[in-house]
Amino acid sequence: MYARILRRAAHIRRFTITATSTSGWEVREEEDSRIITTRLYDDWHRVERARLSFAAAEASLRGAGWVDA
User: What are the domain boundaries of the chain?
Assistant: First the structure.
């Protein structure tokens, strides 16, 4: 549904939003193989806010030299 993967040198950052089987969404941020945050939402407005937060984090990372993987 939504996935952005950024890379810098040997490091990877993943931002994902996936629909769950229980009519909700899983919002997850990962760095390398470590989960930074994972949340389950059943309110679409919270998912939209999480996506906007991801967009801000992605812009900051791109400014620091990260690129699409």
Answer: 2-64
Tokens at 16, concatenated = 């994902």
Residues 10, 48, 22: CA angle, nearest 5 degrees: 90
User: Whole-structure pTM over 0.85, yes or no?
Assistant: yes
- β-strand partners of 1: none
Q: Where are the alpha helices (DSSP H) in 3-43?
A: none
pLDDT along the chain (69 residues), means of 10: 97 97 94 97 97 98 97
Whether 39 contacts 19, CB under 8 Å: no
Helix, strand, or coil here: 24?
coil
How is the chain split among helix, strand and coil, in percent rounded to 5?
Answer: 30, 50, 25
